[in-house]
Amino acid sequence: MEKIRIEGERVYLRSITYEDTDMIVAWRNQENVIRYFFYRGEFTKEGHLKWMKERVETGEVVQFIVCMKEDDRPVGCTYIRDVDRVNNKAEYGVFLGEEDVRGHGIGKEILNLTVDYAFNVLKLHRIYARVYESNKPSLYSFLHCGFKQEALLKDDIFADGEYHDVVILGRLNTD
Fold first, then answer.
1. What is the mean pLDDT of each run of 10 residues along the chain (175 residues)?
2. What homologous superfamily does CATH list for 5-125?
3. I need a labelling partner for 14 at 20 to 30 A (CA). Which of 3, 21, 144, 161 fits?
4. What is the 3-state secondary structure (H, E, C) of 154-171?
5. What are the boundaries of each domain within the chain?
């Protein structure tokens, strides 16, 4: 896997490695992270290693660890998944595993850095995201960063004993 580092103002993105596995598993199993994922099952080390081998190593997913510039501390993860080279599109995802960095505006910086990489390095034409309609901070970040709401899928996901609406947002390289 290619080693990449993308510099931002407060954060930088670096290529994920197999050494990040335990940290990713711990983050993904936190209740405040799980509730925003569509997949709600237990996230295991074996599952993550399979993801790395079958998805990241093959280029179907480009995944980065988000680190704070001030102290090089890993705080989350961002990724471009299901890279479709026929249609030049992919899905964007992000999560912050460290509670103390949430709500401080770094989500927009992470989003912009990742989308810039997708458009300018991967040469993708379209990036899209699926977000729970109730996740207002994420929706705000996407809209603030040039994404447009493309659809609202009513009762699309059944989780925590109830149905949830999902918003599809997209951004074109020409926007």
1. 89 96 90 74 89 93 96 96 95 89 87 96 97 91 94 94 96 90
2. Gcn5-related N-acetyltransferase (GNAT) (3.40.630.30)
3. 144
4. EEEEEECCEEEEEEEEEE
5. 5-125
